[in-house]
Design brief:
heterodimer, A: 338 residues, Rossmann fold, seven-stranded mixed sheet, five-stranded mixed sheet, 13 helices, 14 strands, 34% helix, globular, B: 384 residues, alpha/beta, five-stranded parallel sheet, two-stranded antiparallel ribbon, binds thiamine diphosphate, binds magnesium ion, magnesium ion binding (chain A), thiamine pyrophosphate (chain A), Transketolase-like_Pyr-bd (chain A), Pyruvate dehydrogenase E1 component beta subunit (chain A)
Chain lengths: 338, 384
């Protein structure tokens, strides 16, 4: 099988979607001639013309609001936010209109669209270029929130996002853009709403999504030396969320660590941990732990490695899963007078 | 012979260059709002740039304005009876409310705000469906796709970009639909107003941005919103032709909007119209306008009432007499009575409908929550 990067697979997904459905239009900042700052739209304008793939004025609320109107007229907009943090000007449009139009109008108007957001860090980017913003969107009913971690998923989930009847925030882990894998497109993987076991294991479940999936897989590999056989579940679609697959895995292993790159407080990982303990309480031998980024603004490039969840941090968490039925000593004293 | 450049310049008297054409010509509004009627309703001298609209259209405008004002009063009354949660009146703005929809075809799109209940009824939408939002049984009572009317927009100015996208999408697909955006003076300070006008201009989208400058954004006066000579001057920076009009002169409002719509429909891109008007009532029934404006100011605007102005004009044109005025007033009463009657009952709401239309297909989590609420309802019914 040929090898391909995630960036190329995303590009192929856009091209194939445009070929299959002439309602699909792709626009944003620098997506035309340049092909996007990450080249995800490379060649689309040359191939499909500047009515199907075009640059807009520099205004993110404008881009998303314009997509609302285009979707109302029957087109299928796919817009690119140049970076995670630069989608914030569009937040009002996304939350108040994109997410709600179907519900406000009892289904009379819907605005299927894809908002592509290159997100998260690990690429040495300076401030405002590395945010993990998925929780903002996942907290908003009416949006689907999807994040691929493999090349095949990048292609398949993006195709499905463009076909979906609901708006999809499509979060692309920047640090995985140029990682290659064997693939033969057009790949079709599991549909929206299904998490996937990336690596089977018996002793504990690592739940991860997007940029944290490779970290979890690496940790599982390293854990073998310590005698742990870890299962890794890739969430893939944060909304709709697959409780069933994740709960089934944790019921098998009895232990769970959630790994996310985003800061932890009030994050997606917190939601996952809560859902797992609600569903698997009697199967759990230890509290569900989280490994996440620190609760700080995304750090400067020279410090980002301290912030990002590392293999070691994941292994430390696994070590604290009460293998000897010993409660984590830190929690025996917490809250008691010092 | 050598000369310094300065000497050379001095030696040859500068040729008068033909003055370059003013790039803002055709974009700037007239320095005074366009007006075709005197405040007392008598006609001003005819002008070439804005021909008087057909008198039949103006008579229909009058009819809808009378019904609209009666509707508006009825809606305010319904707040007092607890039938509506809140109502933002547009009394005093009838020429704009009705003119905006009258300038359009049925297949054109309207992007209204919370202020436009009257405009929507003037568009022929069932008043009960219009008031659904304020009655509180759902967010939007009419079918926007079928009525070609977006849901009334509350997040200020956000509709400006939707209209640009919709109008561009329509022309992209070969249709000559125009979109008209209603927006208030205060909302022109929001970023989305600027992004919307700019997008429409860059994509040559057939949009008419119709600013009802009623001089206040809740309590904040226009002087706090802008230092521009008038809001119509905001178009030139985007390359958008703009005009200002006396918003209480129905004849001028329709004339200016007709031209703006024709411009957009002809594929020449967006148009910005600012109408100078005034809301006679507080921001909503819950507002106390005496905290920010005095009675004399309101009284002064009573003399420019758009309805009496149009009535005087139509009588002068022999398009209206006492009998017709009485008949239209009667129509308005019937309209209001029917509305009162229909709003008298409590609408039925289904708690389980909360889960409909969040997504095309509910997520497993919503299915679960729906089931939980269904069980709660069943249990409370058993208790009862
Ligand atoms: C983004 C946003 N900010 C604040 C509000 C609250 N708000 C509702 S109406 C209003 C005043 C708007 O004034 P204007 O645009 O002049 O319209 P008018 O109400 O006078 O018709 C404000 C501040 C809002 N709806 N949306
Ligand atoms: Mg106002």
């Amino acid at each position: 099988m040929p090898t391909m990067t995630m960036a190329k697979a995303l590009n192929a997904a856009l091209a194939d979607a445009m070929l299959d459905d002439e309602r699909v239009v792709v626009f944003g900042e620098d997506v035309g001639q340049l092909g996007g700052v990450f080249r995800i739209t490379d060649g689309l304008q040359a191939r499909f013309g500047d009515k199907r793939c075009f640059d807009t004025p520099l205004a993110e609320a404008g881009i998303v609001g314009f997509a609302v109107g285009l979707a109302m007229s029957g087109l299928r907009p796919v817009v690119e936010m140049q970076f995670d943090a630069f989608a914030y000007p569009a937040f009002e449009q996304i939350v108040s209109h994109v997410a709600k139009l179907r519900n406000r109008t009892r289904g009379a108007l819907s605005v299927p669209m894809v908002i592509r957001v290159p997100y998260a860090g690990g690429i040495g980017g300076v401030e405002h270029h590395c945010d993990s913003s998925e929780a903002y969107y996942a907290h908003t009913p009416g949006l689907k929130v999807v994040t691929p971690a493999t090349v095949d998923d990048a292609y398949s989930l993006l195709r499905e996002a463009i076909e979906d009847l609901d708006p999809v925030v499509f979060m692309e882990p920047k640090k995985l853009y140029f990682a290659g894998a064997e693939t033969s497109l057009p790949a079709r993987t599991e549909p929206f709403g299904r998490a996937v076991v990336r690596r089977p294991g018996r002793d504990a479940t690592l739940v991860a999504y997007g940029p944290a999936v490779p970290v979890a897989l690496e940790a599982a590999e390293a854990a073998r030396e310590e005698g742990w056989d870890l299962e890794v579940v890739d969430v893939r679609t944060i909304v709709p969320f697959d409780d069933a697959t994740i709960a089934a895995s944790v019921r098998r292993t009895g232990r769970c660590v959630v790994v996310q790159e985003a800061q932890g407080f009030a994050g997606v990982g917190a939601e996952i941990a809560a859902r797992v303990q609600e569903r698997c309480f009697h199967a759990l031998h230890a509290p569900v732990l989280r490994v996440s980024g620190l609760d700080i603004p995304y750090p400067a490039p020279m410090l980002e490695h301290t912030h990002l969840p590392s293999v070691d941090r994941v292994l430390d968490a696994v070590a604290r899963l009460q293998w000897e039925d010993q409660p984590d000593p830190r929690w025996l004293t917490e809250g008691s007078a010092a | 012979m050598t000369t310094t450049p300065q000497a050379a310049r001095r030696a040859s008297p500068r040729k008068r260059r033909p003055s370059a054409p003013d790039p803002s010509a055709g974009l700037l509004p007239q320095t005074e709002p366009v007006r075709l009627l005197n405040p007392d309703g008598t006609l001003l001298p005819a002008r070439a740039d804005y021909p008087e609209p057909p008198v039949e259209a103006l008579r229909e405008m009058y009819r809808r304005m009378v019904v609209g004002r009666r509707f508006d009063a009825q809606a305010t009354a319904l707040t007092k009876q607890g039938r509506l949660a809140v109502y933002p009146s547009s009394r005093g703005q009838e020429a704009c409310q009705v003119g905006g929809v009258l300038a359009l075809r049925d297949d054109d799109w309207v992007f209204p705000t919370y202020r436009e209940s009257m405009a929507l009824t003037a568009r022929g939408i069932d008043p009960v469906e219009v008031l659904t939002l304020l009655r509180g049984d759902w967010h939007c009572g009419y079918d926007p796709a079928q009525r070609r009317t977006a849901p009334q927009c509350t997040p200020l100015a956000t509709q400006c970009v939707h209209a640009a996208g919709l109008a561009y999408g329509e022309s992209y697909q070969g249709r000559d639909t125009v979109a008209l955006v209603y927006i208030g003076d205060g909302a022109t300070s929001e970023g989305d107003f600027h992004e919307g006008v700019n997008f429409a201009a860059v994509f040559k989208a057939p949009v008419v941005y119709f600013v009802q400058n009623n001089r206040y954004a809740i309590s904040v006066p226009l002087s706090r919103q802008t230092a521009a000579p008038s809001l119509a001057y905001k178009g030139v920076g985007y390359g958008v032709p703009s005009e200002q009009v006396d918003g209480n002169d129905p004849v001028a409002v329709l004339a200016v909007l007709n031209r703006a719509v024709a411009h957009a429909r002809a594929g020449k891109g967006p148009y910005l119209v600012e109408a100078h008007t005034y809301r006679m009532e507080p921001h909503t029934n819950a507002d106390d306008a005496s905290r920010y404006r005095d009675a004399e100011e309101v009284e002064a605007w009573r003399d420019r009432d758009p309805l009496t102005r149009l009535e005087t004009y139509l009588r002068g044109r022999n398009m209206l007499d006492d009998a017709a005025v009485a008949e239209i007033a009667e129509q308005a009463e019937t309209y209001a009575a029917q509305l009162r009657e229909r709003m008298n009952s409590q609408p039925t709401v289904d708690p389980l409908s909360l889960f409909d239309h969040v997504y095309a297909q509910p997520t497993p989590q919503l299915v679960e929550q729906r089931e939980q609420v269904r069980a709660e309802l069943a249990a409370s019914e058993e208790d009862a």
